[in-house]
Structures are given as C-alpha cells and as structure tokens.
Known about the structure:
Layout: H1 2-10, H2 18-27, E1 32-35, H3 48-52, E2 56-58, H4 68-79, E3 85-90, H5 96-104, E4 108-114, H6 118-129, E5 139-142, H7 150-157, E6 162-167, H8 173-183, E7 187-195, H9 201-208, E8 213-217, E9 220-224
Helix pairs in contact: 1-2, 2-4
Amino acid sequence: MREKYYLKVYAKAPRGSREWLIGAEIKYGGRTVNVPRNKVSPKDPRTEEQLRSGGMKGGDRMLYHGYASKYSEYLVPYVEKDRTVILCEFGILKGTGLAIWCDLFKNVRVLGLDIDLGHIKNNMDNLELLGAFKSNQPELHEFDQLEDNVEYLRTILKGDKIDVCIDDGLHSIESILRTMKSVMPHLADEAVYFIEDNKAVHKEIERHYPDLLVDHEGELTVVSKYGINNA
C-alpha cells in the first residue's frame, strides 16, 4: 500500500522532496534482496561462508531505511543549481540510486563505483525501460573500497571536485574510513557526504575529522563542513 501511495504522489511532488525521492526509488525497482556476491575485494575479511550467505540488498535507502527526509534536507539546495553537480556513489548494485540522481539534477555528472559492475550492466536495459537516464547518463567505474584510491579518483574525476558523495558500499567501519580517506582530497569545499547503514561509524569520523560537521541519525551519517543549505 505504501508503494502505491508514493508512486501516485511522486509525479506531482517537488523534485528532491521526501515523497519524490521515495517515489523515484519505487519507480526504478525498489527494494531488492539476495543479490549474489560474484566479485569481492581480495582484502575482504569475511569468510567464504559469510560471503555465500544472505546475498546483498539494495534499492531500499529512501523507504525501507527511511533516509528520504535526510537526503531531501541536504540535496534540495543542489537541485536548482545552474552549474554541473558532481556526484559519486560508492556501492551501486543494480543502479537504482544512479537512476534517481540522474533524474534529480538538471546538470549533473554521476559517477557510479563498485567492485562488481555486472549487476548494473545486467539491469541497464530494465532501468531504461522504466524511464531512466533520458537526460543524464552515469559513468561506471570499478572500485575496491579497501584499497588506497586517492590517485585513482584523481584520474577518474579529471579535475572535478565532488559535491555529493554517497557511500552505500561494504558498510564496514574499515571500508568507510578508507573510502573517506581517498575521497577527502577531492571534495568540494561545500560538499555533503552520506554514509549509509552503519550506526557506529560517526564516532570514528568525529575522531579522525574533528573539523567536520557530523549529522548522525540511526544508521545514516551525513558529513559536511558547513551544514545544511551549504550548496
């Protein structure tokens, strides 16, 4: 029932509002579970049994996890920007998020980074049938969150600075901090950085980056230098 409601109000909701974000997520497939781990980092500390069990989940940030209000709060200032917004998402799975971001912003460069690009490549035709990527096309890059990627990101960004960063990858404290260390030199001064599905990492971020503002709510952490309306 909730899904039908949000799909109904989505078309008339202001772009970037809570209702719009939830509706867009449902439009592009919504929650998916048991996605197989076909490729992992050589440095992944999990056992073979752990990697085989459960599978991965995605398409669930806005409605299922309830992150839509916080995303809307921070992203709305970017929605009407005349300049190009640079957005990086780490951990893209089947690409639901990338479809949302490409719709959300008028002028945007969306970079999708994942250790395994097979899932989104296999889902691209489906996303396009659902209406995705008519105005903006995402760039896809293989990315290992457990490696030092400062120079790799520099090569990918080609001089651009990241305005919006989203970590929806491994969700471990180690992977989050390592990714953040790689990203920090490439963040725009007024960037916003979302970190999903870890309820404890905000404490480590506050310890490692005491000059940053850390907004923590449940399993979502939002990091910035100047807070909301900084765009």
